[in-house]
Amino acid sequence: MSGKIQLFFFGTGGSIPYSNRKFPCIVIKYSSYMISFDFGEYCQFSILSSKIKPLSSDIFILITHLHEDHISGITTFLHTLSLANYDRRLIIIGPNSFREMLFQWLSKRYWMNIGFDVLFLAFEPELKFKRIFSNEYFRIYCYRTKHFTKSCGYLVEFYKRKFIKERISEVPQQIRGILQDGFNAFENERIFKYSEFTVEKTLRIAYTGDTQPLLDLPSTDILIHEATYADEEFSIERGHSDAKRLLDILNRLNVSKTFLVHISARYKDINEFLAKINLPTNVIVPKEGDMFEFDF
Ligand SMILES: [Zn+2]
Fold first, then answer.
1. Are 139 and 30 in contact (CB under 8 A)?
2. 186 C-alpha to center of ligand 1: Å?
């Protein structure tokens, strides 16, 4: 599958929403997949008002931790999907404790007779780095972050096999698809090993959720990092990051684009935030409704 990976910023604020920034909600759209990093209040409204078309998407909701600003939109979204007869599979990934909380809550709802599958993949956030899910297009990993409660960040790795340019002419047209799917093929008395003719191409998108700055961030092409504060000294004691400290870490990583989110409500005007730090051009503070597209 080839095409565009779209990254929508629907919620870029922190724990208190205000006019311009809402609770965390960042969504990837790729082909028929919709993958949401956290799901704060307002998230479904933004998704439904966008071009994403969740009702015809396979939905993944990835929850970083159990603070209200990151989970408050999930139950109402499930309610909407139920009323709209959503008939695909919804996968929620999050800490073990969230599974218990969510299913207890749902068991009491009058509309709980839903007609679609909800699969919950739970994990213990103590794990340092773990693959949680994979299919033929992407893999989802979680990695440990440092916040006041158990928390994890996510890495979504899109992948596909691409032909090595110099060798593609050797491969008969009718077996190219087999090699691209990662299988060997036999044609004209010859074995074509996929590993000799194709290479894996990946695009990695990592999201931190709430955390102090981490020195052991996973290697990624695109990083969505919280920067609740611009340069405030107390950021770490509050379990968060500030852009100034984060830039020191980014200088040591090979990230092509970084987005700063979870901006505190104390910066009513983002220029107050930007005035305190000198951001390089590949570090962006997106605003609500911004969408970035990546060829893949
Ligand atoms: Zn938060």
1. no
2. 53
Query: Which residue is associated with the tokens 């959720």?
Result: 209
Residue 144 to residue 152: CA distance in whole angstroms: 5
Distance 245 CA to ligand 1 centre (A): 18
**Domain span holding position 254:** 4-295
68: domain CATH number? 3.60.15.10
Q: Give mean pLDDT, residues 258-283.
A: 93
> Which band of pLDDT confidence, cut at 50, 70 and 90, is reported for residue 238?
confident
Q: How far is the CA of 242 from the centre of ligand 1 (A)?
A: 14
How many domains is the chain built from?
Answer: 1
54 Cα–ligand 1 center, Å: 24
C-alpha dihedral over 233, 284, 291, 81, to 10 degrees? -20
What pTM, to 2 d.p., does this model score?
0.91
Structure tokens at 87: 């008939």
The mean predicted confidence, pLDDT, of the chain is 90
